[in-house]
Amino acid sequence: MKILVVGNGGREHALVWKLLESPKVSKVICVPGNGGTATLERCQNLPMRVDDFEGIARFANVQGVSLVVVGPEVPLAGGITDFLQSQDLKVFGPTKTGAQIESSKSWAKLFMKKAGIPTAKSKTFIDTAKAREYITQQGAPIVVKADGLAAGKGVVVAETITQAYGAVDALWDQGVRKLVVEEYLTGQEVSVFAVTDGLTYRTLLTAQDHKRIGEGDTGENTGGMGAYSPAPLVTPELMQRIEREVLDPTLAEFQRQKITYCGVLYAGLMISPQGDIKVLEFNCRFGDPETQAILPLLETPLHQILLACVEQKLADFPPIEWKEKQSVCVVAASGGYPGGFQKGKEISGLDLEAEDVFIFHAGTKQKGKGFVTDGGRVLGVTALAEDFDRAIAKAYNAIHQIEFEGIYYRPDIAYRVKSKPPQVTPPPLVAPTEQDSTKEDSIEEDSIEEDSMIPEILPSPPSPSPASETPSVPEASTPPNPQQPPSNSV
Ligand SMILES: Nc1ncnc2c1ncn2[C@@H]1O[C@H](COP(=O)(O)OP(=O)(O)OP(=O)(O)O)[C@@H](O)[C@H]1O
Ligand SMILES: [Mg+2]
Questions:
Q1: Domain for residue 327, yes or no?
Q2: N or C of the chain: less Cβ packing under 10 Å?
Q3: What phi and psi values does residue 384 have, to the nearest 5 degrees?
Q4: Is any atom of ligand 1 closer than 6 Å to the C-beta of 155?
Q5: Do you know which Gene3D superfamilies this protein is assigned to (predicted)?
Q6: What's the CATH code of the domain at 171?
Q7: CA of 147 to the centre of ligand 1 (A)
Q8: Is the CB of residue 148 below 6 angstroms from any atom belonging to ligand 1?
Q9: Nearest to 247 by CA among 289, 295, 288, 191
């Protein structure tokens, strides 16, 4: 069968690569694709705009494409699924109405309210004076969100009322005419993915990502600097509650509203220190970079899962199978990202060969026999191993071998799941006096406290001087078992 994938990021490279693992998939057309998809055997990049719905439909029909998979949210919010379906194509990805769960924060809030899904208390405004009044009443910290898609730039977590007023004005100046002002939540964030055919759903693996550009989750927001999967925070018990409190009511509400939602349901959750679940946001597509961490763990052929969704046969689908490994993806970005950056830098080291290491291209372009940078996030390097420590070490070993002018990656991806080096207390040189032993006790107490302290992601309000709070994360070490059997890299 032939499949057409829409998009050009690391997520799409991962999707195309995974689809092509099955010999049943004879060809994948990627619109427009990137340097990575260009080099995959049986993949053809089609240089067409993702909003050229007519062009995509014509090409897909001429080629006899059996399934279209839409990666990014923008074409989904623009109604690509509705149009392609009207041209007799099968599409994995929700219609324009369903995609509102991501494309309109106020729509999603109302949806959650109707469905009884736990989320932060909020109000929607079309008037800055009223928004300010509400902020004054509620106090800070508080969160201000643009209603529509904003490529990760529409949310301000304001530490003070003045910052919140500033956010309202700044968004208004950028042309945002609908704002959601929301209660500030604390806890750990986790991403939960499910695929659905509109009748039932299946959960995929969970993941946690790193959105900030800087070490210790500091600095500006980005499209994502790394991710790991599965998230140990989500125990089977917590997953059951997430299904009951979030996913079941979401699907039921879609059905109640007569929306046939086929595609990915991505719930961004905040888990409070007490274990309460609240939805921060929904997205209507695979996450990036999370998909680059999750898909290498998938055993079941991906095209079968996606086809079961578009054919509404998910209820009869066998259990989805996963590798019993842990996965870490580190993103390499162009220097300057998420601000201004240069393109066209030659990339070297992409031919590295290591078992369970996968290099996904995001912003790259083929030039002659090699590749040059062509975007802010350039590559995602994913490594799988029996545990996170080894996966982290493997991913960093691989990324250290890749070079281009200005390359930047965070040194601390997955620090929350990395085991801390054991604290060795040197034996006393002389028999401890009473005083000494008291001292030793107190040292031990300190180290126990530190050891058992799991760093919480406090979605820290943007602050210009967080350096002193940066968790110190040691560099990844060499893997304990550095053998490198035959290449399995993409
Ligand atoms: N109510 C809240 N309390 C605390 N932090 C929040 C809240 N809402 C959002 N955030 C923070 O802001 C980030 C972005 O928010 P949200 O996910 O709603 O925006 P988005 O632009 O849709 O993001 P994405 O690009 O991941 O889809 C969250 O990941 C979280 O860190
Ligand atoms: Mg979102």
A1: no
A2: N
A3: -110, 145
A4: yes
A5: 3.40.50.20, ATP-grasp fold, A domain, ATP-grasp fold, B domain, Phosphoribosylglycinamide synthetase, C-terminal domain
A6: 3.30.1490.20
A7: 12
A8: no
A9: 191
Residue 68 domain-assigned?
yes
What does 122-165 look like in DSSP terms, one character per residue? EEEES-HHHHHHHHHHH-SSEEEEESS--TT-SEEEESSHHHHH
User: What pLDDT does residue 360 have?
Assistant: 98
Domain boundary among 155, 183, 211: 183
Ligand 1 atom at minimum distance from 145 CA: 18
Residue ending a domain, among 183, 199, 222, is: 183
Does the structure show a pLDDT above 90 at 337?
Answer: yes
Nearest CA to ligand 1 atom 16: 281
Q: Which candidate, 170, 163, 128, places its Cα nearest to that of 142?
A: 163
Q: How many residues does the chain have?
A: 490
Residue nearest to atom 26 of ligand 1 (CA): 152
DSSP string, 393-441: HHHHHHHHT-B-TT-B--TTTTGGGSPPPP---PPPSS---HHHHHHHH
Residue 150 alpha carbon, nearest atom of ligand 1: 21
The verdict on residue 42 lying in a domain is: yes
pTM of the full predicted structure?
0.87
Domain co-membership, 9 together with 85:
yes
CA of 13 relative to ligand 2 center, distance in Å? 21
**Residue among 53, 54, 458, 382 nearest 228 (CA):** 382
Quick check: CB of 147 below 6 Å from ligand 1?
Answer: no
Per-residue pLDDT band at 188 (split at 50, 70, 90): very high
Side chain identity at 261, as an amino acid letter?
Y
Is the CB of 154 inside a 6 Å radius of any atom of ligand 1?
Answer: yes
Where are any strands of DSSP class E within 187-233? 188-196, 201-203, 208-214, 218-229
Total domains, the chain: 2
